[in-house]
Fold this protein.
Amino acid sequence: MSSPVDLLIKNASQLVTMPAPPDRPRSGGDLDEIGLIPDGALAISGEKILAVGPTTRVLAQVEIGPDTTILEARGQTVQPGFIDPHTHTVFAGWREAEFSQRLRGVSYLEILQAGGGILNTVARTRAASFEDLLASTLAKLDQFLLYGTTTVEIKSGYGLNRADEIKMLRVMEAASQLHPVEIVPTFLGAHAVPPEFQDRKERYIDLLTREILPEVASEKLAQFADVFCEEGVFTVQESERILSRAQELGLGAKLHADELAATGGAELAARLGAISADHLLKVSRQGIEHLAKRGVVAVLLPLTSFFLRAAGFAPARTLIQAGVPVALATDFNPGTSPVQSQALTIGLACLKLGLSPAEALAATTVNAAHALRQGDHLGSLTPGKQADVVILNAPSHEFISYRFGTNLVRTVIKKGRIVVFQGRLKLKGRGDGYEP
Ligand code: NIG
Ligand code: FE
């Protein structure tokens, strides 16, 4: 025995450990191996997990001192913090009027082609000051934390010029200094063709590859680059040009692929050795085989399909059977998924993608960590991993999907620190309200 532990959670009715080999995400039949421990306990020292196991064993293993915080978790489920590997969290304004338009039958791409959609948010994000964007981003991060999400990937892509793309990435950088939610920044300058380049797409790609990407890379403002590879937006060839350049500059590649039409986005993601291919509603059989062969993570976004009233959902079961590692994300953005809850993603993944509650939980924790190249220290509750932990007011993990729509999160621990307690934020200087 060494020194007393800082925090001990004990008697959890279920402790979900999500053990995984650190070097790869789960695929195939491994996806539902979530490492359940009944009557479980977890001990934290500093920012890391020290011990995990049945309560009696952990109590025998660790030292408890006068300063140890003890959380009794009887009747509750303990799991890794949710990781959201695909969001567009930094934006100004909402798009509720377009939502009404879509309900009347106008399509998402029609709205974009008429200068709305992403371009609507681009105009408002360009007009917003750094301070206003930062304040609204922090409020959104508060909401993520209340839903149990402890790490989020955030994409730029509402600036679409040098200054405003950099402004968005600097907002992410500042927010991660001020807020416990960890941010993984992705450069999505190729989210749409900006209005001032409407008939000169090639020139915009030149600007991205020659000026903006090199600056983003040298200033270390993003870990990944992404492209909206879609009919009427960026072609496979254009996406390849942008992402190969990003890779030359040391960024990892991600891709919005095969969402509205089968363009060969998945094949491109595999060819590039991208870390993930996202959406994939229309992915081809060949695309699935290529993803499996290269171990590209498929990030599925069922909230977006639901919110866009798409004809179908991504072929999750086929992807899993083919051996593609599957992760799940909210896609949080003002146009196609104004929703931040990974518990809701899990509910839809079970009801609409055919995942089991266990598979969906693995896809929002350990596999989501791998979709961000963070699987070595995030996504599981095993000794040595970062102590990002959620306690749910639920006797079993099935309750997340079964009672979807209800926020069951009671306590959230980030890097060993309690940041949500009894459903309320415990952050210095921050309220527990959510101002849109
Ligand atoms: O992933 N498809 C492109 N990007 C987002 C939508 C962004 C927006 O509509 O503002 C998505 O669905
Ligand atoms: Fe997206």
